[in-house]
Amino acid sequence: MRKATRYHSDRFRLNNQLMWAILLVLFLSPFAFGSTKPSLWLLWSLLISLCGAVLFGRMALSNARFRIAPRNLPVLFCLFVLLGAFMLFQALPLGVSSAAASIADLGVLITLDTISLTPHDTILALVRWATYGLLFFLVLQITSNPQRARAFINLLYWAIVVHAVVGLLFLLQFGDTILGIPKWKYFGSALGGFINRNSFATFLSFGSVLGVNLMIERMTERLSGKGDTSILGIYLGKGGLVVIGLGWLILVITLIATNSRMGLFAGCCGMIASVVLALAKKSANTNRTGIWLFLLVIPVFVGLGMLGYGTLFLERLGRVGDASDVRMQLYQQVLQMIEARPLLGFGGDSFEYAYPLFHQAPVSVDLVWDKAHSTYLSLWAEYGLFFGSLPMLIVAIIVLQLGAAYVKAPGQDMLIRSGLCVILVGALHSLVDFSLEIEAVTFAFVAIVATAWARQFELRNAGTREGS
């Protein structure tokens, strides 16, 4: 018994230490232009792999078991490995000649001995995919303990608030720059450390969803008798409603200041969905009156933020029709790409190089179209219809599992609700943009979803597992 206790104690300390290392990566990665460069992909991959090596090494030395092992998520693990294996297959020099032709000039043929048009980029895509999988696994270990899970989400929430403050400061006080570096586009929009306002908006939307759910949980704590249940403690104490609410207000203002139309829409959908899910959950300890107020508070504060910081946003909103026309023309040509290689795709991370083979009027030739501006279309163009659908299938399975766990949970569950609504934000914005193709945004997405998944696993196995 003492040996088992020591193993659990070693695992507990290890997961506590690991939490800070992972949080540091999540906090720093957005400052590096959202981590859009290969050197940064390799850096974060190295650091997360180092965390994984320490975890596996120390667990082996202690002869301890993982709280959540790959065998506990067999379907998700198999689908994840399947796509990774296909990426490797795309990049291998198989000796079987494949050709890509341009519809702009039918005489142009590019002959390769790999499926991928850009095999080296596909290897980098595989590195990022493996990094996301390892990050998901590491966060599962960290957040398998419910107290640590809540601490992790709280710290991640405040990390995103810090990024929002930085974004506002460099927009309003430091010459409308990116961390002091002169902008070359998106003038008048808050970017923080990102180089794309839509990516920053998705990142902030994740934080705004966490803020709403943290406030709902704080209101519920008074009725359930958890924590400091005094009026002063609930509203003004450490982690009180007012403190969390101020952070959330900063996030909403910065989200508006990004001037991202779909970013704000997706963020509002995520926040409202959080309130609706909380109201739909029948629980004796639910402060339903307070939760109903959020349905009024969210649009009111978004509206007030528009008055102060939404001038450029409203101007862009008036041009949404023109922007939609351009996107539809782009999407039609991307669909032609998918039709050209519906099974094998053009290779991971190859869109930037494959699309020029199909690029023609009326899509502007004055711009470099290095993204499909729809993550769904991008996946199908790069990996084919079957393998490109695997990430969506993985997320769909997670949504079903989280939804079932939320229904069965004995009361309100902030972590599961946050995971579901963050997935909603990412799914909506991915329809018309590429935020989840930006590594720093995907890191936050993976961390929040993994935390929610760990909670549903805990609920499913309640009564059969020991605490750690």
Q: By helix and strand content, what is the structural category? A: mainly alpha
- How confident overall, as mean pLDDT? 87
Q: How far do the termini sit from each other? A: 14 Å
Proportion in β-strands: under 5%
Describe the structure.
- The protein has 468 residues and is mainly α.
- It has one domain.
- It has helices spanning 2-28, 38-62, 74-91, 119-143, 146-172, 197-224, 231-236, 241-257, 261-280, 288-309, 311-317, 320-340, 351-354, 375-388, 390-408, 414-429, 439-460, and strands at residues 98-101, 109-112, 177-178, 181-182.
- The strands form two sheets. The protein has a two-stranded antiparallel sheet with strand order 1-2.
- Helix 15 runs antiparallel to helix 16 (414-429).
- The radius of gyration is 23 Å and the shape is globular.
- The two termini are 14 Å apart.
Keywords:
468 residues; disordered N terminus; globular; 17 helices; disordered C terminus; two-stranded antiparallel sheet; mainly alpha
